[in-house]
Known about the structure:
Elements (H helix, E strand, L loop, with lengths): L11 E10 L2 E2 L1 H9 L6 E2 L12 E2 L12 H20 L10 E4 L7 H10 L6 H11 L2 H6 L4 H10 L6 E3 L5 H14 L5 E8 L4 H9 L29 E9 H6 L6 E10 L12 H14 L8 E3 L6 H15 L8 E2 L2 H4 L6 H15 L1 E2 L22 E2 L4 E8 L3 E8 L8
Parallel strand pairs: 5-6, 5-7, 10-11, 10-14
Antiparallel strand pairs: 1-2, 1-8, 1-9, 3-4, 7-8, 9-15, 12-13, 14-15
Amino acid sequence: MKTTDSFGRPLVAVTGMGVITSLGQGKAENWMALTSGRSGIHPITRFPTDHLATRIAGTVDFLPESRRGASALTFALADLAASEAVGEAGLPKTDFRGPLFLAAPPVELDWHHRLRLYAQSRRGGDWRSLIEAAREAGDRELFDESQFATIADRLAEKYGTRGLPITLSTACASGATAIQLGMEAIRRGECERALAIGADGSATAEALIRFSLLSALTTQNDIPEKASKPFSKDRSGFVLAEGAGAMVLESLESALSRGAEVLGIMLGCGERADDFHRTRSKPDGSPAIAAVRAALADAGLAEDEIDYINAHGTSTPENDKMEHLSLSTVFGERMPTIPISSNKSMIGHTLSAAGAVEAVFSILTMREGVIPPTINYEIPDPAIELDVVPNVKREAEVATVLSNSFGFGGQNTCLVMAREAGQRSQ
Length: 426
């Protein structure tokens, strides 16, 4: 079997995957719920929501760390996904021998730390006295939580990854970017394998307030499971969520030499920036268009060789419109016939984790021959002509997938995956 691509680079195989979302823990539980069209979105119980416009989310409440704060939960989510992925790859869980790329939310102290510092400060909470209080307290937990790299450091120590662990935050594209960095490291010959993780446990009251101020969140609280409705005419915003996805990436040559099962092939990645606005996409969709085309070119595939698209599909009026525009521009008249679905209709938007979670689901789609649906698609938008696999899963032969991640701040990352090495669209 040929182990290099058409450009002479090492082919990158996926040999292990892990996932956790509001639907449950592990691939089996998530896949069963996802293909059944079940929603994990529910009323928030973790903190009071009396004065919030949005009172629903796809929070992961079944872990004890969910009550300890965003940093603890993000680590727990990343750890569980990584453990499943490394275990499936058949690698030692304490001696991974490859780099770690972690997509994680920006660091922010939880309120119990903030209030404690304020109480310890001498001058009423100005920033100098808060720094002094933190220094005098000598609180290791507080120090660790204030460092952006702490979660990656703990994961690197636990799994025995090599080199300096990389933590990145490229908004909603973060998970896909982590996979991209792992792919590129293997292609450059810097390593034989890499562990790529996207994790986010930061569904807090503050996050809800901030996204609400941006008019990004839905306020349809009455029936939570119907609130996220990507590509529907009555879509009104995304639903904040938590989760993690992890992939063991490995050169195909390395995977074959040790007899590992190859779950899928990472063929290409494309990344382009959008400098139009801090949150809004450029109206002509040109950065997203460029990212899709770059991913196809990197994969060595033509536009007619994609079988299925895992949409970014946030359920916001503007993003869904932009994604349709960009894909229609790239795929032309074929676009209305390509199946495209959004798992955010069921799990919500997992932010930093989304690209990694959706990459896992994309590989499962090819392996299982089943396309998850876009649920809550009851009122089609005549301005968005797409085959969204409405409401019910679809059995289909899927050899190639394009997975889109378009983030706030102009981050656009697209991944192209194949079921097997040398695989082309049917």
